[in-house]
Predict the 3D structure of the following.
Amino acid sequence: MDNRIAGKQFGHCVICGSTGKGENDFICSDCGDPLCATLYCTGCGRRLNLDAKSARSFLADYNYDVKDTCGLIIKVDRCGACMALDETANIEIYRIHF
Ligand SMILES: [Zn+2]
Ligand SMILES: [Zn+2]
């Protein structure tokens, strides 16, 4: 059964899933920080600001080479807090633009 209410549909933050005011998907201001990299864990909902050095070393573990980490959002399904030692996380990388 489709529970959607007919009419206008609102977009969601592609990172944390919060509902927006417009119709398009977006990245909310909690998830995107133009001055640093942000890690968001969909597993436990933890949000973490990373400085450039930690962001780059984290990304290097996943074979990403990113020069500019400002405004970068790393979405993971497991983070250090909710991941078992032998597990690996799936990561997706987003960038906010201004
Ligand atoms: Zn968000
Ligand atoms: Zn987590």
Notes: Residues 41, 43-44, 46, 78-79, 81-82 surround zinc ion (ligand 2) (CB under 6 Å). The chain is about 10% helix and 20% strand. The first strand starts at residue 37 and ends at 41.
